Amino acid sequence: MNEEYQKTVQKSIERFLRSEIFRVFGLTLLKYDIIFTENVPLGAPSATDFKRIFINPNDSFLTDCKVTMENIYNFILSHEVGHIILMHDARIGSRDKTLWGYATDYMLNLLLHNIEIENKVWENQQKLVILNIQKFKDHILFDECFQGMLEEEIYDKLEKEGKFKKETQKVSYKQFLDNVGVPSEGISSDEKIEVTKSELTFNNVTKKKVFVNFPKTQSQIDNGENGSDNTDFDNKLARTMFETNILSRGFENKDFKKFLRRRFNVKIPWKTILRDSILIELQKSSDISYGRPRMAWLCQPSLPYLPNYEDEEILGTLVILIDESASIKDTDIADAITIAKESDSYYKNIYVIKHDTIVHWDKFYPDKLTSDDINELLVRRHSGGTSHKNAFEKVMEFQSKPDCYVSLVLAITDLASDIEQVQHILPDRIPRIYLQNDSNWNYGNVKGKVIKIQ
Hints:
It is built from 17 helices and 14 strands. By secondary structure, it is α/β, with parallel strands linked by helices. The chain has 2 domains: about 1-160 and about 225-265, no CATH class; about 275-450, Rossmann fold (3-Layer(aba) Sandwich). The chain has a 6-stranded mixed β-sheet with strand order 11-10-9-12-13-14, sandwiched between helices. The chain has a 3-stranded mixed β-sheet with strand order 1-3-2, with helices on one face. Strands 4-5-6 form a 3-stranded antiparallel β-sheet. Helix 1 (about 1-20) packs across helix 2, helix 4 packs across helix 5 and helix 12 packs parallel to helix 14 (about 330-340). The longest helix is centred in the N-terminal third of the chain and has 26 residues, at about 95-120. The N and C termini lie far apart (about 55 Å).
């Protein structure tokens, strides 16, 4: 029976590759092994660990839909790959994973439905790939009230107007791979798959769904949040190919055309990026005690510093560096500080340093910042050249005090500075975010996240 499923999937991918519209889906699928197994965690119909796509052929979703096996596999494959092409994993920010999963599913299923409708006009080969979503839309996350809305907009609407609950448990990643017959060498027994049973009520309709989140591999961790440079490049290339291919065609539905132009030209506001970035870094750092190194580092201190993970949350200090010579508007500085202030559940105090070539003013805030405090921080006392050397040294001077460690450095600067030459002063374990306003500046090898004020 497994051989029959494999042949059906191979035919689907072959048709994707011959279709002008779905070709990019087929090209992306060539990088993945398709594995049929009843062991997909907690009965989810399908899941991916970004190396393989797992499908449960006996799941009720596949057996209850009144369409052909070919139609349903066309949908499952294009849906799973659609999340990758649209880079949903990379865009989650600090949002709730499960609610983000609902939002992206609603958007993606509507997108595929509209593409299928338009495809009847777009090409003579329209019968190559048929999804038939209209016939099983009641079995998936599908609601036409979200037409024309981006994933972020759907998420906000669900968060405000929906009733949402979930239950999460973890299962062994290594055991799962062993059960489905996939080599598990190099996978630690501590690595867990996060499986979430969820229920969302929206517009008086309740939907239940199981979400499966696999742990990131060591190569993904070593190369950053979204995997290797090659994978990141491939995903961006696939997105560009999809965008160019779709937008180059005529549309029957003008509203759908407008939506696609918004979808592919969307620019996320810098304030949203900054808010998400601060939360991500602070959530990471609150789980780490920098004062107690791991035993592995004590045994071989030539290794990069390895902090010790503890069960108890330990909050540190958010350090804000303000480059007084930077040509950043006071309103942008005030917005950045306000955004940082909103994340105060992940740090216990704030230390502000104002500098140009040297530090001219600094202040420690053990309590929450007030409006008067923010106004005080907008006063510019000096402006000349810029250097971060003395500012970074000041951070480390603070760090050396008893019971003080830095959770995050937020530097507000135009980056016209010596950051690359002096950033070694800060240990790599301290995350840093640079907020800058020069869109033409090449920040080269600056460590940390650089966010441009748009």
